[in-house]
Amino acid sequence: MHPIIASRDRLALYLAVWIPAAMLVAIEFATLSGLPWMAAAAMAGPLSLAYAFVCLAAWYPCRATPLQSSGIPRLIGTHGAAAVLSSGLWIVLASVWARLLAALGSSAAFDHFGDQVPVLFVTGVLLFALSVFAHYLLISYEAARQSETRSLELDVLARDAQLTALRAQVNPHFLFNSLHSIASLIGSNQAGARRMCVLLADFLRDSVRFGDRDQITLGQEFSLVRQYLGIEQIRFGARLAVHEELAPDIEDALVPPLLLQPLVENAVKHGIAGLLEGGTVTVRAEGTGTDLMLTVENPYDADRAAASGTRLGLLNVKRRLDTQFGPLASVRVADGGGRYRAEIRLPLVSSGGAR
């Protein structure tokens, strides 16, 4: 919908700006065409109001010909044709209005209409040109506001993701299981208990450190994944196996921090934990041209009811990617045959620049 029509305040301001234009048209009719002042005002007022709405159509050619990507010939041709058509339509409306005024007993406007046509045409073209200028300003304002909104939303989502991940990392259930596993290992496997303590401390420290950044390297993201899965492997023992595929040439690719964390957590919590025999969590990263593909895959018990928690982490990932990359990024899920796969596609950008 047209942004001026969509807002009553904007529409009121827009029509108020046309009051001086209506006065100018009335002066032109009175001085250049010899109309009496009352007849000039009666002719110019409604006619200018109608043309104000006609000039709203400038929004569409302005959107079709962005200043940044359209050449000067295209801009002149597009808006010149639109101005001529709009001014021609204005003359037709003026003719109809002059005939109506004549039918109502004010024949002066109709009698002088032939003298008014050149003035109307030139004025219509100039007013449409001013409308084009105003609409480009409005488009720039809307773009700046949307960019600011997207930036704020991205910041909020990143902070929410960090807090969500930290809550998942520090929630009582996670810590209880980890500490309980440590306590159980102290008597039978002191080396394992020490290793789990180190992994837990490193994981929490790095999550806080990396979570404050806008982007981290894929190598750092995989390091967080390894730390998390390392803790879970000590808890689940032989039930949890991990398969990792990360090509060395894309380790410096930049990704939002803690992007894989919700997916890996879901793979363990809603996949491996529900299988008596356990299974393998596969975390894969590969570069395909200009895209980076991240995949987390795991088996699950097909007879077990799906948990609603799996959707929350996935929704958070989708919102973050949509806010930061728009249509350049996507999340796809394949669920069937006792296997669950979440696949993330986003632009492949290294720490040294786009590839």
Task: Please give the structural blueprint.
Blueprint (H helix, E strand, L loop, with lengths): L7 H25 L4 H19 L3 H6 L7 H32 L4 H4 L1 H58 L1 H17 L1 H22 L4 E2 H19 L3 E7 L7 E2 L5 H9 L9 E10 L2 E9 L9 H17 L4 E7 L2 E9 L1 E2 L2 E2 L1
Parallel strand pairs: 2-4
Antiparallel strand pairs: 1-3, 4-5, 5-7, 6-7, 8-9
Helix pairs in contact: 1-2, 1-6, 2-4, 4-6, 6-8, 6-11, 7-8, 8-9, 9-10
CATH C-level label of the largest domain: Alpha Beta
- For CATH, the homologous superfamily of the largest domain is named as Histidine kinase-like ATPase, C-terminal domain
- Rounded mean pLDDT score: 83
Q: Report the β-strand fraction as a percent range.
A: 5-15%
Order of helices and strands: HHHHHHHHEHEEHEEHEEEE
Q: Write down how many β-strands occur, each being a DSSP E stretch of 2 or more residues.
A: 9
Radius of gyration over all CA atoms, rounded: 33 Å
Fraction of residues in H or I helices: 55-70%
- What is the tally of helical segments? 11
Assign the CATH topology of the largest domain: Heat Shock Protein 90
Structural class: alpha+beta
Distance between the termini: 38 Å
Number of domains: 2
Name the overall outline: rod-shaped
Strand order of the largest sheet: 2-4-5-7-6
Instruction: Detail the poorly predicted runs.
Output: none
CATH architecture of the largest domain: 2-Layer Sandwich
The main pleated sheet reads as:
5 strands, mixed
